[in-house]
Amino acid sequence: MTSSLTPFSLTSSNEPSARYDTPSLVEAYRTAPYYHDGRAVTMMEALTEHDPERLHGKLKDLTRKEIEDLSAYVLSL
Ligand code: HEM
Description:
The chain has 77 residues and is α+β, with helices and mostly antiparallel strands. It has a domain at 26-75. Helix content is 22%, strand content 12%. It is built from two helices and two strands. It has helices at residues 43-47, 64-75, and strands spanning 10-12, 15-20. Strands 1-2 form a two-stranded antiparallel ribbon. β1 (10-12) and β2 form a beta hairpin. The radius of gyration is 12 Å and the shape is globular. The two termini are 14 Å apart. The structure holds protoporphyrin IX containing FE (HEM). Protoporphyrin IX containing FE binds next to β1, α1 and α2.
């Protein structure tokens, strides 16, 4: 899914000077790989390994099962 740039967009951890808008997750089941540079091949990767600055909240506090449920939910949109 394409991200666009505005002065108000979030920064990205691997490109600190770049900013990206929040993308729609509708039909995310068919838009892998994820993030502006495609660094997450699967939804589980997007929600676990590729959010080092925790821009998506405290996902590390969730159990594996809770993250799997969240992944299944996002992929159902
Ligand atoms: C439960 C809540 C959330 C989930 C499950 C979630 C999940 C995701 C996923 C799967 C992507 C990759 C989408 C793609 O590349 O097509 C993404 C990207 C992104 N999300 Fe979230 N997100 C959540 C909440 C948020 C919130 C609250 C914000 C902002 C305050 C946010 C900001 C962003 C931004 C800026 C990107 C693009 C980052 C990039 O392209 O590098 N997300 N999110």
